[in-house]
Amino acid sequence: MLAMKRTAPHILPGFSLSLGITLLFLCLIVLLPISGLLWQLGQLGPGDFIRVMGSERVLAALRVTFTAAAAATLVNGVFGLLLAWVLTRYRFPGRNVLDALVDLPFALPTAVAGIALVALYDRSGWVGSLLDSVGIQVAYTWWGIVIAMIFTSIPFAVRAIQPAIEELDPDEEAAALTLGANSWQRFRHVILRPLMPSILTGVGLSFVRSLGEFGAVIFIAGNLPYKTEIASLLILIRLDEFDYPAAAAIAGTLLGVSLLLLVAINVAQTRLQSYLRTGG
């Protein structure tokens, strides 16, 4: 008598039903709103799209947005790694509180974050007054935009890097020390090397998140056209003017850039992980 083949019980529905539910949810929550944006974008011809995106005000807003997002991402890449390392490798009083504070920007409404940052960095705030005494102004400048983007996107860097640090083998670090590696060599080859895919993901998500930030930025930016006006605010202005095609053009550009970056990050992360697994 042939032994009956044992199969693992299915907790979730079968593949076809699970895939159908997943695709339906994806279409309703993600693709349907995007399709509305693409429909509005389709109302513009190539010439109109170039006219909208080539205007001096739009280019200035995109420049402010992308440069501030890049600066915030650079800071998040460095300090996100340090913060993830401290939370993973050290035990100290208040660690759980610090770990919870990392996720606070996720739960805090961005408008509340913007108001808090203004109260802190304005000339009348306790940090802003100290900086103003040495001739440094943060609120209502490009630097204020950077700080707001850092605040809202730092959790993406920390939470992407932290699990990878937890998976590092301390024995490999001890072996490198035994073999005579100095601190820089151990950090570069034993620690930083396997963390690169997670760091890439963290800084990429941080950059994309910063591109779309709105609430926290508009309160501290000052919103001066050509100086501190971000692309998200310009989209709202075009909507208030009932210029929906122009708003769709700017929004579609941000969406396209973000999508391309996410795809590039996923491809690069996959290839980098494969490269590291093969000992390259």
UniProtKB/TrEMBL annotation:
InterPro entries: CysT_permease, MetI-like, MetI-like_sf, Sulph_transpt2. It is a multi-pass membrane protein. Keywords: Membrane, Sulfate transport, Transmembrane, Transmembrane helix, Transport. Residues 62-263 form the ABC transmembrane type-1 domain. GO terms for molecular function: ABC-type sulfate transporter activity. Belongs to the binding-protein-dependent transport system permease family. CysTW subfamily. This is Sulfate transport system permease protein CysT. The lineage of its organism: Bacteria, Pseudomonadati, Pseudomonadota, Alphaproteobacteria, Rhodobacterales.
